[in-house]
Amino acid sequence: NLVFVAKESVAEETRVAASVETVKKMRSLGFDVVIEAGAGGLSRIPDAEYEAAGARIGSIKDAKAADVVLKVRRPTSKEISGYKNGAIVIAIMDPYGNEAALAEMARRGLTSFAMELMPRITRAQSMDVLSSQANLAGYQAVIEAAAVYDRALPMMMTAAGTVPAAKVFVMGAGVAGLQAIATARRLGAQVSATDVRPAAKEQVASLGAKFIAVEDEEFKAAETAGGYAKEMSKEYQAKQAALVADHIAKQDIVITTALIPGRPAPRLVGRDMLKAMRPGAVAVDLAVERGGNIEGAEYGKVAEVEGVRVVGYPNMSGRIAASASALYAKNLVTFLETMVDKDTKSLGLNRADELIKATMLTDDGEVVHPNFVDPDQ
Ligand code: NAD
Fold first, then answer.
1. Model pLDDT for residues 316-344, shown as the tens digit of each residue
2. Which segments constitute the Alanine dehydrogenase/pyridine nucleotide transhydrogenase N-terminal domain (predicted)?
3. Active-site positions?
4. Among 88, 149, 158, 161, whose CB has the most other CB atoms within 10 angstroms?
């Protein structure tokens, strides 16, 4: 069986879907591995290192023979036109709102999987790309904020006087937010955080940050069975905004990470709140790709909004591409391993497996995932 690891065609994608370690792993699982020349360049993995690990360096033409195509992003129309009918394609597929692209993958006969739909259960933890990438994004968000901020983060007592610790407020305390809290704490900032899920309260406190939230009845019921946030009512959002407005006026750095699965990101910080922040304040919007938590955040830019510099970089984990690729590639190969028979080393899908069912978008010419099946058909 042949695995093809594609070079990403979107200019801003710095990551790659295989590492030296995962090439070795795929070889041991019985795969021949072809890496598209230069695929690892931006993640600092030279072709020669892949070769030394047992891969062959090839070109996009090699995709035609591949039984499995590994990518970071969903392949474009042009890319899939070069894949063979029946190929397994695994990537971060960004399926919501992209139904036409899913239909096209189905028409091309691809069996495609969206890594971000992996269930968050113990068995699948090592395949959880949302967590592996969000963790790095949370770290990097603090690094980007610190780079833009014109003051020091830790308190510094020097012979020339004292520099106060920066006040950092993290909004959304999921995987990214918790890592942002930990990173800001390591840099010596004074950290507070908010979330709408009650479970976040203890996690925030255990990292040594102060928890700020409207803890009413709705808050106590705000977590779904899957551990995700619900979209909050208008009334809750108004109460939350009032509390946050007060708190944010005293902050130097705000990092927002709030997402709701399958919905646009909630708007948490308005212009009025930015205006009330201290001179020199910095904000980082990690939700910018999903519409943004911060009013005025601009995709791919550091925008000046009401005197606050708002960082709106997409693909934050891709800004530490070498680390992000290492973890992403490991997530992928662990999933791929579930499709290989250990004894015969043959590739076969168990369509009854809950991981396969949860992530499979298209199969045998059809869109098969229940969230994306067209109800009119
Ligand atoms: P996410 O990326 O969907 O959202 C980020 C955070 O934003 C969440 O904590 C969410 O509650 C919060 N949020 C949403 N609306 C908000 C609002 N209006 N105001 C403030 N905050 C808001 O979530 P995630 O980081 O992927 O994680 C969600 C949960 O799943 C976490 O509890 C996480 O620890 C848990 N998780 C479990 C596993 C596992 O069991 N294997 C793996 C990963 C994550």
1. 999 999 999 999 999 999 999 999 998 89
2. 4-137
3. 120, 125, 128, 131, 228
4. 88
For residues 53-58, average pLDDT: 98
Nearest CA to ligand 1 atom 8: 174
pTM recorded for the entire structure? 0.94
pLDDT in tens, 266-286: 999 999 999 999 999 999 999
Per-residue HEC secondary structure of 29-98 comes to CCCEEEEECCCCHHHCCCHHHHHHCCCEEECHHHHHHCCEEEEEECCCHHHHCCCCCCCEEEEECCCCCC
Q: Name the residue among 194, 197, 222, 198 with its Cα closest to residue 209.
A: 194
Ligand 1 pocket at CB < 6 A:
120, 125, 128, 130-131, 134, 171-177, 194-197, 199-200, 227-229, 232, 257-261, 266, 268
Give one word for 317, left, alpha or beta, with left for phi > 0 and alpha for psi -120 to 50.
alpha
Distance 203 CA to ligand 1 centre (A): 12
What pLDDT is stored for residue 52 in this prediction?
A: 98
The residue among 67, 5, 9, 11 whose CA lies nearest residue 36 is: 5
pLDDT of residue 294: 98
In the prediction, which pLDDT does 225 show? 75
| Test site for ligand 1: of 92, 118, 120, most ligand atoms within 8 A of the Cβ | 120
The pLDDT > 70 percentage for the chain reads 99
Residues 204, 185: contact at Cβ < 8 Å? no
Tell which atom from ligand 1 comes closest to the C-alpha of 130: 26
Listed range (10-14, 173-177, 203-207) with the worst mean pLDDT:
10-14
Closest CA to 257 of 239, 281, 284, 232: 284
- CA 131/CA 127 separation, integer angstroms: 9
Q: Which residue lies with its CA nearest to atom 27 of ligand 1?
A: 174
Cα 334 to ligand 1 centroid, rounded to whole Å: 23
